[in-house]
Amino acid sequence: MLRRAQLGLRQVLSLMARRPALLCGAIVLGVLLVLAVKFTCSRARNVVAAAPPPLRFFSPESPVVDLYLGQLDQRLRSVAEVSFVFFYAPWCAHSMAARQEVQLVAKKLAKQVQFVAINCWWSQGKCRRVNHFYKYPIIHLFYRRFGPIEYKGPFVAGYVESFILRVMTPLTYLPSRDAVLEFLSCHEPRVVGFFQFNSSPQPPGYTTFLASALQALKRDFRGVVRFGVVTNRRVAEAISLKEDESVYLHRRFNSSLVFPRWERNFTSRAVCNWVFEHHESVLRWLQPPGTKSWLLEHELTKGAALLLFLPHDPLVSEPDGLLRQVADVALRYHSCDAQSQRLTSSVPCCHSVLAPDSTAWCDVCPTSSARCSARPALQSASERFCLHLHCRSFALSYSPLSQHSACCGKFHPQLSNNSKTKEAPSRMQNLTSSTVTSSSDALKGLGCQTNKTLRFYVLDMELNWPLAVRLGAPGKGNSSSWRHRQAGAQGDGSFAAIVNLKDEVHYVLQRTPAATLTESLEAFIMNFSAPYSLLRRHLVGEEPREHQHEPPPPLITELTTSSFLPFVMDVEKDVLLFYYTQWCGFCSVLNHVLIQLARLLQRHSGVTLARVNVARNDLPWEFMVDRVPSILFFPRYRKELSVKFPDDLPITLPNLLRFILKHSGSLPDTDKPSPTGATDASGPGSAVLRAELEALQREVRTLHHARELLSQQLAQLWRDNRKLRLDARGMEAQNAELRREQRDLEERRREKSRQLAEALRRLRELADASQNLLNQNALLRMVLRALKETAEPEVVEEMQGEAEAGAEHPAPFELSMMAG
């Protein structure tokens, strides 16, 4: 490659040597190119204005040290043991919102923590040159020489203060056995380190253990994994720690572990990785940035998830009552012992059967020697046992392999959704809350006995209220007040939902005031885990609008999730359903067609036009469409024979009328059989629609004729407009010519004025010269008069003759002045 380049360069040089003009042209072109680039760059520097100097982001009275010029002062970190560094951009809205929260935290912890804010957007600052942040704001904490510890949580004062407190005290001192047992009794993962402080003030492994606790805060800003330290050997023996500088990981479901120092290096990163690889967590906190996020999708793709929205105070170190109840349910759900596993393997064909009157339930399971039976056979055989609230055995036939056991019970009166309501039979099929009186033994180990294993996730209700509303929490979703949010949730401010992303369904927990959260969750989980679950998919839809007075019936009925099935499945009328979304541009174009169609069908009460927004209202799977806009027709008395408007046919008013006439079954005369047994297909209803269609066609022809007339008028107007434009162009040309003549006349006037001014100046000079001559003449006369008196007469006469000759023949200078 290098040889080819050298050879090409030699050829170019030889060609230039033979043609000097080419060499000169190349040099001139290069010089011009350099000058053009330099001129362009110099003009660009002159055009770009200098950035204004930055201003203070925090007020001078704030306890936060504001380095608004972007300087990095490492000496500020040595003022306190913990340093809080807030990197911001002055234009960033998130930085402005976090500024108020940081000020609140700084006012409380200013005596213990050094708060520093740095403008990392100023181009001349050192922070901009050293750090390359892609988002703002960013919070870094430094604990002594360890750091930075980046905060990845929400920019709320409570969470930021909680994170700072955890950084200030990353380890919990455990002085006694009771303290150790209480420390390990929490559902969260716990790590205990044993270090003796006898030989030195600080053992070598203690610093590593402290750094590992800070490393854990880097991964989890909530500090779910807590680290404790034991310095007494007798206290360490309570958890079987005998060797000094040992790290113990407490686990509930499996055996606890001790850090293998013979296999791994005892470093802070290695200890932290080992803890997060082997720890057990029954509850996981989620903080998605919105209703749609990669984090939420990643967790939901792992399997069915129970999302619990609870009011949470991050400054409370110990779990509150609601969180303890949820943790207790999760622990019992995941407590899989050997007995429950054997029971699950021996009884794989259990079924839940509902009593005929929907007031009791039975769990029917085959014995160890029985075979799996079909659900209809179990339903018919167990109906007579549902009246007795106990367990007993029965046989489906005379075969010894048909022995089954049935355990029955009644629905809990306080946990039922439909007690004391008029819709008890219909709503029993829509149970989405606690319906089965479950016990702790039934829930224990359920996660290992079913294929519908749940993952428990906890979310802060205050920060994730839009997601709760999207899942079906009652109340106003756009309300920012905590009172409205708490009123929309349950009585204690909680909300729970099971989301199964694989089946694309989710269920909402509906609680009654008399039921506790533990009882409701147990029954909710049991109903979901049953082979034939009583839960029904929750459909999220728009709330019906409230009107103070009864509005007039609209031309097009707007349907929601709650009103969809009753309206569409009404057997007394035909329904033409229009599917649309608010972001569909084609749907908006068809509005005028639907309005015209609704006006034509207004006389005929049997055909109703409705529409539904499928982006805001969830519908049953059998009523969903794969594209918008779409039109479905549900005929009268034959709802199962619904027809979709052809996709290849344009959606116009005549096509829609033909589609309705072809598939309509709402006309009274067309649906009733005639006395001969045949169906009259040409009833008065069809005649009315055909008459309307003919009238519409006549209107269309009239509109076509009017369009032709309008086209002719528009053509004439276009010609007139074109003529006017040509005349305007001619007038503009004449006007331009007149302007040029005016400019010429103005130039001539200015030239004449200049000449006149020059002549006037010369006349003034001539007048001045004449005045000088007159003065000289008067002076000479005075001299002559004096000479006459003193001099001789001959001399006087001679001088008088010379003066007269001089007056007749002036000097050349005077002649030139007079000529001028």
Automatic annotation (TrEMBL):
Keywords: Coiled coil. Residues 799-820 are annotated as: Disordered. Residues 53-173 form the Thioredoxin domain. Pfam families: Thioredoxin, TXNDC11_2nd. InterPro entries: Thioredoxin-like_sf, Thioredoxin_dom-contain_11, Thioredoxin_domain, TXNDC11_thioredoxin. CDD domains: PDI_a_PDI_a'_C, PDI_b_family. Residues 686-776 form a coiled coil. Gene3D superfamilies: Glutaredoxin. This is Thioredoxin domain containing 11.
